[in-house]
Every structure is written in C-alpha cells, then in structure tokens.
Amino acid sequence: MKNDTIKISKIVKNVSHSSDDSDYAVCWVKDEIKGVEIDGVLYPNISNSIFFLDNKVQWKLYTKHNAENTGYLLQLSHEILSNPLLSKLHINKVRLFNSGTIPLFKLSPGIEKRTQAILEMIDELLGSHLNNKEDALISLLNTFFVYCDGQCNIKSIIEKSQTKANIVYEFKQLVDKSIVESHEVGYYASKLNISAKYLNECVQEVLNVSPKSIIIEQLLIRSRHAIKFTNRTIKEISYDLGFSTPDYFSYFFKTQTGTNPSVLRRSGSS
User: Fold this and answer.
1) Which is it for the CA torsion 58, 97, 72, 125, positive or negative?
2) What are phi and psi of 9, to 5 degrees?
3) What is the pLDDT of residues 224-261, one digit of tens each?
4) If we measure between CA atoms, which residue out of 184, 250, 259, 177 comes closest to residue 216?
5) Closest by alpha carbon to 38, among 27, 48, 30?
6) pTM for this one?
7) Is the pLDDT score of 153 beyond 50?
8) Per-residue model confidence (pLDDT) at position 261
9) Quick one: pLDDT at residue 3?
10) What's the helix, strand, coil split of the chain in %, to 5?
11) Alpha carbon distance 97, 26 (integer Å)
C-alpha cells in the first residue's frame, strides 16, 4: 500500500478540493463549522455529520473563526476503495461515493463516539511504524464503512431531497451533462419535475443569479475553450454545442462577449 493511499487530518481551517484531485473524501464534521460548499452550492447547519464526496466534485469546508477541532478529513484513493475487504460492502452501490448525490449522515451520540474513536485510531496508525499496519488500517476502514452502510440500510441517510439548495445542485449537474441537448430553462425544469418558475426561484435564492445565466455561462466556457484550444471550425463548434445554425452561434457569442468567435480565434493564434 502506497503512503498516499490513505490520508487523514483534523479540520482546523478552511479546506478545499478541486475536481482535478483524484482522492475521494470523507468529512466528519463535529461543530464549529459554517458549512460545506459543493460545486458552488452552500450547505449550512451540518454539525455532527459525515459527508461522502467523490473525486468529481469541487467542495470547500468553511470553519468558524478560531476553530480548534471541527472533525476529521479522511482522503482515500481508488486503490483503497477497491480493496477486496472494502469492496464487499458495495460502497458505490450504496451511494457513499457516487457522483450526482451527496450522502450525508446525521450521527446519533453513540455512533458519533464510535466514529471518532475509529478515525483517531486511523490517524494514530498512519503515523506509526507498527508491523501489519496496513492490515489494521483496512480493518478499521472496514468497520467504519460497516457503520455507514448500516446507516444507509436503516434509511437514516439524508439524501439529496428537494430542498432549494439541492435543486440548484442537481440543476447545475444537469446543465453540465446536457447542455448540448437544450439551452432552455424549461427543459431542465421538466427533468427536475418542477416548474420553470420554481427553478428560477431556487437559483435566484441560492446563487443570486438566474438559471439562464448558468446555462449561458456554461455555453461560453465551452465555446471559448473550443475556439482557442481545438481545431474545430466555428461551424462545427456551433453544432457541437447545440446551436441551430453557425450564424445564431456567432450572434449569441458576440452578444454575450462583444467579440465574434472568428476574432477570438485569430487573437488566440497570434
């Protein structure tokens, strides 16, 4: 087992993770924390909880001022999660690490004490030179996930319910996945089984922008990247991004940026 396949640290200050990192994360939050931001959406009031975050999302934990110990951050590589002992728990199948969901466990006092004890032992073992350390670490992780698996089975998992913050999270995930399919707010609202009016209300309240602006932002990000860093023609890019005609794509791009796509391409190659 490599040295960086399991990492653990106490949460004493703001900590973040970008989608470029390969580690999966388990965040055990005790208290003294303002919230966790996941792909731009803030989830407050998460004391005494465990988050499971896969390596495809960007997240940041916000601690309170002068926080001494808000919990533990456990980072795990894919290699560790593929260990035969852990894979028997079907960790991905119970959605502990599954892109598009945010499993969050609210811990009872008894489970909280056991969780803290397990994480403290993992922390201690990682800093030791004991024989059979690797086997002991896997055993502790197995015990930890058994508790979490049990929490799933008794349905104490707080899944991504239809709160406004979670609707916004799902909307942003859908836009990232389906931007080529449609540029219309109504399309995404129907996918979320809500009205376009309510989706607008949710996004405005959580992010203080409109759903349409999220769609436009995603289109501009992809447009700029394709124009500057690929050899695709402007015509090809317009169809790649779901525009009906190259002329409409050019009109959209100039309206939003003040520059024609062809001008941006020439400036990027000069």
Assistant:
1) negative
2) -150, 150
3) 999 988 899 999 999 999 999 999 999 999 999 999 99
4) 184
5) 27
6) 0.55
7) no
8) 93
9) 60
10) 45, 15, 35
11) 9
Element spanning 37, H or E: strand 33-38
Question: Crossing angle of helices 211-229/246-257, nearest 10°?
Answer: 110
DSSP 25: E
Domain(s) labelled CATH 2.60.120.280 in the chain stretch across 6-158
d(CA 175, CA 161): 19
**Residue 111 has which token pair?**
């489970």
- Distance separating alpha carbons of residues 241 and 223, to the nearest angstrom: 8
Residue written as token pair 């405005």:
204
Superfamily of domain 6-158: Regulatory protein AraC (2.60.120.280)
Residues of the chain with CATH 1.10.10.60: 164-269
**Tell me, what's the pLDDT at 94?**
41
In the CATH hierarchy, which fold is given to the domain comprising 164-269? Arc Repressor Mutant, subunit A (1.10.10)
pLDDT class for 121, splitting at 50, 70, 90? Answer: very high
